[in-house]
Amino acid sequence: GENVEQHPSTLSVQEGDSAVIKCTYSDSASNYFPWYKQELGKGPQLIIDIRSNVGEKKDQRIAVTLNKTAKHFSLHITETQPEDSAVYFCAASSGYGGSQGNLIFGKGTKLSVKP
Amino acid sequence: KAGVTQTPRYLIKTRGQQVTLSCSPISGHRSVSWYQQTPGQGLQFLFEYFSETQRNKGNFPGRFSGRQFSNSRSEMNVSTLELGDSALYLCASSLGQISSGNTIYFGEGSWLTVV
């Protein structure tokens, strides 16, 4: 089955710097890759997602890149702000039927943005 | 549009008891999936329901079960609670099945403590 590795587990940056979180997946059939942000005491919130037919997607300060050949995808946050501090999860879904159709999550990255 | 609603938010149970958690999906969403989140294991998929049928199941013992009603609302039940069942239980909803590449949106979760 699918396995998703996420690095680093913790990341500390200065306000205004960029942050990059990387994930690798094992199932070449995976075709959907969402990223979630989880603040303390809350449920995960979708921040951006990408499908296997595109290589990059941007939404203001957030971007995700996908390298299907290497089976890895990354979250890029530019001009970080203290409110970006949270735990970020990547996930992969092999999709399209049967027992493969569920999301497998990485272990999470705790991002701290220092003012 | 209201988000995914989970009840109760917090509960404490005694080992050996059983618990039922409830989830109301976003209006119009027909798929509900459940996840267990713990510090050690991260986010783990429990099961997914679509059109009142379980479509997918994670690697959890039979003590964990669920159901979905005709209005798409879902419940999950854990019988014979163990200390290790203490976790945040997250419900997520999507328009269609995860296996079709649908985006899932999480609720705030139900915090279960087993003593």
Q: If you had to describe this structure to a student in words, what would you say it looks like?
A:
The complex is a heterodimer of chains A (115) and B (115). Chain A has 115 residues and is mainly β. Helix content of chain A is 0%, strand content 55%. In chain A, strands 2, 4, 5, 9, 10 and 11 form a 6-stranded mixed sheet that branches. In chain A, strands 1-3-8-7-6 form a 5-stranded antiparallel sheet, with no helix packed on it. Chain A starts with a strand and ends with a strand. Chain B is an all-beta fold. Chain B contains no helices and 11 strands. Chain B is globular, with a radius of gyration of 13 Å. The mean pLDDT of chain B is 94. Chains A and B meet through strand 4, strand 5, strand 9 and strand 10 of A and strand 5, strand 6 and strand 10 of B.
Brief account:
The complex is a heterodimer of chains A (115) and B (115). Chain A has 115 residues and is mainly β.
